[in-house]
Amino acid sequence: MTPPPDSRPIQYPLRPALAVGAVVFKDNRVLLVKRGNPPARGVWAIPGGSVELGETLQKAAEREVLEETGIVIKAGEPVLSFESIHRDDNDRVRFHYYIVDLAATYISGEPSPGDDALDAGWISGEALGRLNVNPITLKLLRQTFNFR
Questions:
Q1: Top-confidence range, 84-88, 104-108, 114-118
Q2: Please, which residues have CB within 8 angstroms of residue 4's CB and are 6 or more apart in sequence?
Q3: Using an 8 Å Cβ cutoff, are 109 and 137 in contact?
Q4: Backbone region of residue 20 per phi and psi (left: phi > 0; alpha: psi in -120 to 50; beta: other values)
Q5: Beta 17-26 vs 93-108: how paired, if at all?
Q6: Which of 96, 97, 105, 136 has a CA that sits 20 to 30 A from residue 83's CA?
Q7: Which residues form the Nudix hydrolase domain (predicted)?
Q8: Total structural domains within the chain
């Protein structure tokens, strides 16, 4: 499935892009997606994406999680914010995101990859060590949520 043009990663931006993620648990498992687009293609991470103009962080997280995974959530308060800057071989900024991860409550649905995700699923703490998980995601889950 080809994502709509406005959901593709912005390469060589003029300014940082604001993005959100949602940390969602169900039955002692966390919802993760395997990213389908650069800069993190093939890496498992918290589901989320870009904030649209006029959209709150919470609404953006709810929309993005639904688009990426088919899961309905209720987004809550921020638990982590960080920058993600990727440069090319000529040291030009290829991607620059400011990301705010929110705590979220599972409402309904079963994970199914959509939008820009290659895969989506409920991941146990034990399985984290066997997957290529984004280091910031791993740190967030282990330090903030004591998820192991």
A1: 104-108
A2: none
A3: no
A4: beta
A5: parallel
A6: 105
A7: 15-145
A8: 1
Domain with residue 50: its CATH number is: 3.90.79.10
Please give the pLDDT value at position 7: 52
Cis before 39? omega within 30? yes
Cα separation of 57 and 124, whole Å?
A: 26
Residue that has been written with the tokens 């993760």 in this structure: 32
Q: Express each pLDDT in 61-86 by its tens digit.
A: 999 999 999 999 999 999 999 998 99
Q: Where are the beta strands (DSSP E) in the chain?
A: 17-26, 29-35, 44-45, 48-50, 72-87, 93-108, 117-123
Q: What is the helix (H) or strand (E) element at residue 131, kind and residue range?
A: none
Q: Over the Cα atoms of the chain, what is R_g? A: 14
Question: Do residues 94 and 58 make contact, with C-beta atoms less than 8 angstroms apart?
Answer: no
DSSP conformation class of 91: S
Q: Which domain holds residue 103?
A: 5-144
